[in-house]
Amino acid sequence: MSVNQQAHTGPPYGQPQPGYPGFQQPAYGAQTLPAVPQSQYGAYNGPVPGYQQPVPPQGSLRAPPTSGAPPPASGASHPSGHLAYSQFEHGDVQNGIPASAAPMQRPPASQPFLPGSAPTPVSQISTFQQYGPPPASVQQLRNHMAGMTIGSTAASAPPPAGLGYVSGSFSATGSGLHTPYSASQGPPAAGVSEALPLAQPPFPGHTVSTQRLPAQAPGFTPPPPSAGVGPSSYPPSTAAPRPPAMAGPALPGQTVAGPPSSQPNHVSSPPPPPPPSTMAGLHPGPPISGLHGPPPPTHPPQPGYQMQQNGSFGQMRGPQPNYGGAYPGPPNYGSPPGPPPPPKRLDPDSIPSPIQVIEDDRNNRGSEPFVTGVRGQVPPLVTTNFLVKDQGNASPRYIRCTSYNIPCTSDMAKQSQVPLAAVIKPLAALPPEEALPYLVDHGESGPVRCNRCKAYMCPFMQFIEGGRRFQCCFCSCVTEVPPHYFQHLDHTGKRVDFYDRPELSLGSYEFLATVDYCKNNKFPSPPAFIFMIDVSYNAVKSGLVRLICEELKSLLDYLPREGNMEESAIRVGFVTYNKVLHFYNVKSSLAQPQMMVVSDVADMFVPLLDGFLVNVSESRTVIASLLDQIPEMFADTRETETVFAPVIQAGLEALKAAECAGKLFIFHTSLPIAEAPGKLKNRDDRKLINTDKEKTLFQPQTSFYNNLAKDCVAQGCCVDLFLFPNQYLDVATLGVVPYQTGGSIYKYAYFQLETDQYRFLNDLRRDVQKEVGFDAVMRVRTSTGIRATDFFGAFYMSNTTDVEMAGLDCDKTITVEFKHDDKLSEDSGALLQCALLYTSCAGQRRLRIHNLSLNCCTQLADLYRNCETDTLINYLAKYAYRGVLSSPVKTVRDSLINQCAQILACYRKNCASPSSAGQLILPECMKLLPVYLNCVLKSDVLQPGPEVTTDDRAYIRQLVTSMDVAETNVFFYPRLLPLTKADVDSDSLPAAIRNSEERLSKGDIYLLENGLNIFVWVGVSVQQGLIQNLFGVSSFSQISNALSTLPVLENPFSKKVRSIVDMLQGQRSRYMKLIVVKQEDKLEMLFRHFLVEDKSLSGGASYVDFLCHMHKEIRQLLS
Ligand SMILES: [Zn+2]
Questions:
Q1: Which of 315, 405, 532, 1049 could tie 866 with a disulfide, CB 3.0–4.6 Å?
Q2: 851: CA distance to ligand 1 center in Å?
Q3: Strand 803-809 relative to strand 772-782: parallel, antiparallel, unpaired?
Q4: pTM assigned to the model
């Protein structure tokens, strides 16, 4: 019997799966909704075997059973563990994903991988670049930063004595294995680093791209040579030239006074001047407890970075205008004061560039599909476009890890301080080219699971005893195969239906859940959407109420539905409110809608059951009439006060009465001060910033909403909140229920119809239409040795293992941290299985399963080579943003710095070559850790600028907690594109540049986006023709900075720029606010807040300064 036979035509997977939530309706309105999957599940006909199934590498061969009949479901029950099947050697068992170096040699499901195809292990391997052989010529680069100063370059700042990198204190030769650049090589011009001689690696194949800073303090004892780092395992490094630095003229620094006339998306009000926050007095305190974990991603070999010898050659840059140093020198660093060092700075071109790393990854990994058949593979970066082929591990679109090779012992993990975490997006939208998970039905008895740990059938389960039992890959328990699920094994020990069953051959799939998986042992009803509109004075006057009602008239035709269904199964209901609530009966038999008012908001109830939740198509006329009438009914309202908690309670009660899950869409404008449960007071106080009480600004002012959230989760009532504040409305408190129910918050400060409606409507359309699972519970199982210990995201937990979400949409991520509870083994690796139980938009109960296998290592070097910095930053930001709820912000910042210093110091001590102690050596895949970490430290939550309000900070804090890795990446390090360099004849984007003012040229126009805002920055010397083409005005001075969209003009440049904007909008889960900024205009202050490599107005360090600071921290740890 061959497993290579083509196409199985019979059930269970021979036919196309029933439509899955395919969202096949046309895109709504003029907007395309990029992230919403358009395709249905395709038929799962099993993979197309393109080549011979290889014989498993180990174990004896057994003939497949000769009988076609399932074995008797014999009684002999065996205890769990290995003891029960002594007649088989372990080697008999062949299943699961092979270990790292052995790519799974089988064709991908349904997707011919390599046409032609005899076994092609070699070429398969070749697609996994990080598994390449040890580099033959790794180049280790070094940099000497003699004479460098940390901290303020302002004349008035204290002299950074002791921090000066005096040339003489630096040993140029280091270990002797590195060739220093000699001064005689002359000062390289910017961008000529590739011409510099590269040092030899200390060990063959060792250290790729290291960054070194020179020692500064005499008397430093170099750390011991690295312990036990195998020389052969580093990826090769190639020296690719860096792109020439953009050397536009630096802009004159401007001090901007006065409040901005326009705020970025999350910024709601002009603030008082920021406290000059410094990061003085950094104490290398204990590591942040609980951070042991993941490492940064492995990137393909990067060209080494060379740091130039400051003082010897290289471009010297003057101090940045206006800003004081973030790391003022002496008192804080315990160094004796000395003469002020010359204002020299490390050349920014010589330190690791995010742009370069992103570019290199695109070039190296963007062309080949990422095939998931190999354990522990580090995926391409989130900024790289790539296709994924599921061959047994979940796609990185569903799960990304801080490291794909985790330490075998908890001691190693603690030593490295690398947090071990997975960022999981269970319902992630996929590009159209990738198949959605198949839906598997195991019949009335439900999905096949391990008897003991209840893990679901997956590719890593091992079938034994001729297929009659399987051994669990998570807990080793042996479970009988149910008779209906029996299948013979082939001579390799693999089930002959291996490729016909998604749960045996793919990393991600779904099971149809049985009634046992349903609340109260009852299949769920389809969910309901309830629209709850604030009709107080501000909401009416701003035109918001009319806008929402108009929009709903058409939007209701685009509710989510399962792929094949004619119409959505979701029922809808309507409530309006100010100090009282108005319920509407929109039953189809009525000629006109009926309103019922509940003015006793102290004990909320729903005054009508029949006719409140209705089917849209049945009640279309009545609903349309209601939506026409609402704006008129409240047109003359004088009511300014609102309630809030009773609104949620009303929605909750309505869902309870209807016995279904659902979502509340609440459109709210003000602090709920009216007399009612959950009433709030204005407790905003910016004076608390930088005090021990600052944390209270992030905490809810009452526990009332926590309890309400708990009730909502129990009912499957998810809350999405659209806020339109003109002043403080306590997002920290109002956000509790949306946050804990898995909902979303959108905030439109100072909402103005003309400029903001487009953005709001786009968000609303997408929010209403996107895929969402209701009444969801997620559990992450792990193989023996590690377990999930901590969780971050928008959810509720009533115990230590189950993440509960009233709703979970395709944009939400849950971050899970793991800790060791035993030793791991390099042979078996580590496994994760994420199981999400949820109700689909049609009311079907399902389980979505994602499996991922990771490598385990006994050498720290392997950990540091398989990390993903973007994911690490995602985790660290979430950890820090939770920390501000309980600790002073400064403590949180210091802990972050300390942990990252420990991570890098551990690498330096154990993995890098022995060399001059004064050199900063960064692991290749963590070389961006300092720059990204600095961005997190400077973010509005941890170091707010003057324009950032308390509500902004609470909003951002909650937003980031649910972000995926791509979102945090661009949020913390925005994308900056020179629009004037765009090729109008191509589809491509112009090459991004680094986020620094000195990269901007006043003759160019730039676009900066961070996932929430798009800035279009126009230099003062931009050619008149370009201005005419883009803005339709004849001069710079005529450009309006009130523009919220770019004018539609019929010329190539305008079309190109608008297509870029549209493309970026399409990539983000929220519609970004567009702000036009003219150079030297007052709005420029806002823009410069996002130039994250520069010093910030709020006291955040520049990248260069922070790198020096990190180096000092590391050196302290090493000594
Ligand atoms: Zn088990």
A1: 405
A2: 14
A3: antiparallel
A4: 0.75
Kindly give the distance from the C-alpha atom of residue 391 to the centroid of ligand 1, in angstroms, as a whole number: 22
Closest CA to 297 of 371, 383, 205: 383
CA torsion sign for 619, 624, 629, 631 is positive
562, 842 Cβ separation under 8 angstroms: yes
Cβ-count burial 160-176 (b if 16+ within 10 Å, e if not) = bbbbbbbbebbbbebbe
Give distance in angstroms: CA of 450 to centre of ligand 1: 5
Reduced 3-state DSSP string for 150-204: CCCCCCCCCCCCCCCCCHHHCCCCCCCCCCCCCHHHCCCCCCCHHHCCCECCCCC
Q: How far does residue 452's CA lie from ligand 1's centre (Å)? A: 5
* Whole-number Å distance between alpha carbons of 707 and 586: 31
Q: How far is the CA of 780 from the centre of ligand 1 (A)?
A: 13
- Tell me whether strands 662-668 and 717-723 are parallel, antiparallel or unpaired: parallel
Is residue 53 within 8 Å of 4, Cβ to Cβ? yes
Question: Which amino acid is located at 854 in the chain?
Answer: L
The predicted-structure confidence for 865-884, as pLDDT tens digits, reads as follows 999 999 999 999 999 999 99
Closest CA to 572 of 624, 535, 524: 624
| Sign of the alpha-carbon dihedral angle for 255, 261, 267, 268 | positive
Tell me how far apart the alpha carbons of residues 405 and 295 are, in angstroms, rounded to a whole number: 8
539 Rama class: left (phi>0) / alpha (psi -120 to 50) / beta: alpha
Instruction: Give the distance (Å) from ligand 1 centre to CA of residue 78.
Output: 14
Question: 361 C-alpha vs ligand 1 centroid, how far in Å?
Answer: 38
For residue 676, the one-letter residue type is A
830 CA from centroid of ligand 1 (Å): 14
- Give 831 Cα–ligand 1 centroid separation in angstroms: 12
Q: How many angstroms is it from 282 CA to the middle of ligand 1? A: 46
Going from the Cα of 471 to the center of ligand 1, the distance in angstroms, rounded, reads 8
**Residue 1048 CB partners (closer than 8 Å, separation 6+):** 1054, 1058
Q: Tell which residue, 848, 741, 22, 780, has the closest CA to residue 517.
A: 848
Distance 290 CA to ligand 1 centre (A): 26
Size (the chain), residues: 1119
Q: How far is the CA of 514 from the centre of ligand 1 (A)?
A: 20
What's the rounded Cα separation, in Å, for the pair 1055 and 1004?
A: 17
pLDDT the model gives residue 919: 83
Q: What does the buried/exposed string (b/e) look like for 313-345 if buried means 16 or more CB atoms within 10 Å of the residue's CB?
A: bbbbbebbeebbbbbbbbebbebeeeebbeebb
The rounded Å distance from CA 461 to ligand 1 centre is: 9
Alpha-helix runs per DSSP H in 716-850:
731-734, 736-740, 753-769
Spatial CA neighbour of 404 closest among 921, 925, 873, 929: 925
Q: Which of these ranges, 375-389, 557-571, 712-726, 883-897, has the smallest mean pLDDT?
A: 557-571
CA 273 to chain centre: 32
Other beta carbons less than 10 A from residue 139's beta carbon: 22
Distance 784 CA to ligand 1 centre (A): 10
CA of residue 472 to ligand 1 center, whole Å: 5
What values do phi and psi take at 575, rounded to 5? -135, 140
Q: Rounded distance, CA 1099 to CA 1082, Å?
A: 19
Are 670 and 536 spatial neighbours (Cβ–Cβ below 8 Å)?
yes
Q: Beta-carbon neighbour count of residue 950 at 10 Å? A: 24
Phi first, then psi: give them for residue 401, nearest 5 degrees: -115, 155
CB 297 within 8 A of CB 974: no
pLDDT (tens digit per residue) in 890-942: 999 999 999 999 999 999 999 988 777 678 899 999 999 999 999 999 999 99
Å from CA of 85 to ligand 1 middle: 16
CA of 80 to the centre of ligand 1 (A): 9
